[in-house]
Design goal:
two-stranded antiparallel ribbon, RluA_PseudoU_synthase, pseudouridine synthase activity, alpha+beta, Pseudouridine synthase, 26% strand, PsdUridine_synth_cat_dom_sf, single chain, Pseudouridine synthase RsuA/RluA-like domain-containing protein
Length: 357
Amino acid sequence: MTQMPSLSSFHPTFTFAPKGVPRFRKTFFSLASMLNPTEPTCENAPQIQQNYPTPLSPPLPAISKDIELTRAMSASSKSSLYKLSRSDVLYEDEWFVAVNKPQGVYCESVLASVPCFLAGDSAESKSGRLSEGTKLNLLELHLANRLDRDTSGVMVITKSHKVASKLVKAFTDHKVSKTYIALCIGPAPKWKRITIISGHGRSKFGAWRVYAASDVGRVLPGGSVVRDMVTSFEVLSVNGEGSFKEPSELQEHEENNIVVEKKAVLDADAKKNEILVRAFPRSGRTHQIRLHCQYLGISIRGDVKYEGVYEWNGKRYDGHELHAESLSFDHPVTGCPVMVQAPLPLWGTEALQSSSK
């Protein structure tokens, strides 16, 4: 044990002013040096480096910043003019309404347009606004699920707080089955069905990235944690060759599993094809399908954030081509099974047509 030196061993020294007045010369010593004179100070101590997980997908391409800004401005303008019509409604009862959200419209704008639709023309004033009494009866509308700005498809809006809490919990507990349709560009897959298992996360102020499956649970810069991300895919067509079939749950024996542990090895010179896939997200992570398509080397057309082509066959795309095709769940009030399905968008129908061009 290091013996602590006594305070009496530290003697202040004197200096004398010209007229002989004694003054103390300032002598400083730290408590840390008294306790252990050989211990290095905090300033000189080596810094401990935090061992953070390394993302396995690339950062956002530089081109995406300007393109995304332009798209956001266009969507703001389009959203301000959006009005829900009867043709957009896929399902409705006294507890919730399911609608087919168009591409390039914000979820909040769809929600804002629901009151006038539910109230009907009789409740609208000449200015197109609801009367105060009607508004009070519609204050409990909630978004049960959200879609990205450029993702089209099924969106559910509940009509009461109680139903909202039940349905949101069903989404959180993964008791809602979801299917998506995506048009991708890349090498023709060697698989018909596949399941990809990885980590998902982002550093503070960073983009969402794919991480190794073994990194799940590890802390990222900023304090967030890598979470699990699982998506199953099936190929519907390649260059128009194939056929559409109704969504059904994939069986485990039909799938090949890819457990992500390292960066994908992709052939940059491989022939690019138009690939229509159906995705079954098993977890509900942000940009999940877009990230997994990127990792598989078949980024979604128009998805500039995740290396999707901005221009293809002489055409420029104003958004990514991802469509929320269906939702299946138990009714939050009656308990009966409900399946809501949105029709294919135009780009999906065109992709299924035989390509002789």
